[in-house]
């Protein structure tokens, strides 16, 4: 590309040199240091080819196991991602509880994960749900993942 631009500029300069001196006189200007400057204008058109960006899909499957342990929800999370071996992701663990007065509410616990070479990740967490509550269910939501490297088949 640089060679093309240089040859284009050289060709433009040659065109100027080949012009009659009367035409060049209007383009010459004196600088502050008494040097002469010759202005040359030439339009250059070039084309760039941008390589196609390949998106790598991430297809993570999440399994949860849970039970109440006093004031905590004990959650065992398993993430299986057979589409890539290097990736990152996030999810939200949502625990729905019934309070002593009978009202239900949902507590959210954001989680981050990263895989480096394995297709299955497992982690365990104890999430505070408060006193005098009953754990009704635990779900995962807001699941996001990004692959850095696909599995080669």
Short description:
This protein is mainly beta. It folds into 2 domains: 2-38; 60-150, Immunoglobulin-like.
Structure description:
The chain is mostly beta strands. It folds into two domains: 2-38; 60-150, Immunoglobulin-like (Sandwich). The protein is 14% helix and 54% strand. It contains two helices and eight strands. The chain has helices at 2-17, 21-25; strands at residues 28-30, 36-38, 60-69, 72-81, 84-99, 104-116, 120-128, 133-150. It has a three-stranded antiparallel beta sheet with strand order 3-4-7, with no helix packed on it. A three-stranded antiparallel beta sheet has the order 6-5-8, with no helix packed on it. The protein is elongated, with a radius of gyration of 34 Å. The two termini are 38 Å apart. Mean pLDDT is 77; it is low at 1-6.
């Amino acid at each position: 590309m640089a060679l093309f631009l240089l040859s284009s500029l050289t060709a433009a300069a040659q065109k100027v040199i080949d012009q009659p001196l009367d035409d060049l006189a209007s383009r010459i200007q004196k600088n502050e240091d008494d040097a002469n400057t010759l202005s040359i204008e030439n339009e250059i058109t070039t084309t760039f080819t941008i390589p196609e960006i390949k998106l790598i899909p991430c297809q993570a499957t999440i399994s949860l196991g849970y039970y109440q342990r006093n004031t905590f929800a004990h959650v065992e999370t398993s993430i299986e991602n057979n589409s890539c071996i290097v990736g990152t992701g996030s999810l939200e663990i949502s625990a729905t509880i019934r309070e002593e007065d009978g009202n239900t509410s949902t507590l959210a616990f954001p989680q981050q994960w990263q895989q480096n070479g394995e297709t299955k990740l497992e982690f365990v967490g104890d999430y505070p749900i408060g006193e005098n509550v009953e754990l009704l269910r635990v779900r995962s939501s807001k699941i996001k993942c990004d692959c850095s490297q696909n599995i080669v088949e």
